[in-house]
Amino acid sequence: MFASPRQIPASSPLEAKGVAFGHYPDIGMLQGNVHVAEGAKLVWLKDPDGDSLHINSM
After folding, report:
1. Has residue 2 been placed in a domain?
2. Phi, psi for 12 (deg, rounded to 5)
3. Which of 4, 18, 35, 50 could disulfide-link to 28, CB 3.0 to 4.6 Å?
4. Strand, coil or helix: what is 52?
5. What 3-state DSSP class applies to 18?
6. Opening angle at CA 33, ends 31 and 21, nearest 5
7. How far apart are CA 44 and CA 11, in angstroms?
8. Is the residue at 52 inside a domain?
9. pLDDT value, residue 5
10. Within a domain: 3
11. Which domain range does residue 44 map to?
């Protein structure tokens, strides 16, 4: 699944595949697994090795 520059992929299909999301309460408002802050959409998730990945759309 690829995201356009203005869109972050929906987190529900990723959740269904067992993707673990990171949540950071101090960063913007949380909408599902997507943080929204000052016009930016941010997602943190873990790869199978436990490494953190960050996807953002500004």
Report:
1. no
2. -60, -50
3. 35
4. strand
5. coil
6. 165
7. 11
8. yes
9. 46
10. no
11. 11-57
The residue type found at 22 is G
Buried b (16+ CB within 10 A) or exposed e, 31-56: eebbbeeeeebbbbbeeeeeeeeeee
Structure tokens at 19: 């993707």
Residue 53 and residue 22 in contact, taking contact as beta carbons nearer than 8 Å: no
How large is the C-alpha radius of gyration of the chain?
A: 11
Partners of residue 40 on adjacent β-strands: 37
How many domains, in total, are found in the chain? 1
- What pTM value is reported for the model? 0.68
Q: Tell me whether residue 19 is in a domain.
A: yes
Q: Which segments within 1-58 are labelled E, that is strand?
A: 21-22, 29-31, 34-37, 40-46, 52-57
- pLDDT tens profile 1-58: 444 445 555 667 888 888 888 998 888 898 888 899 988 999 999 888 989 999 999 8
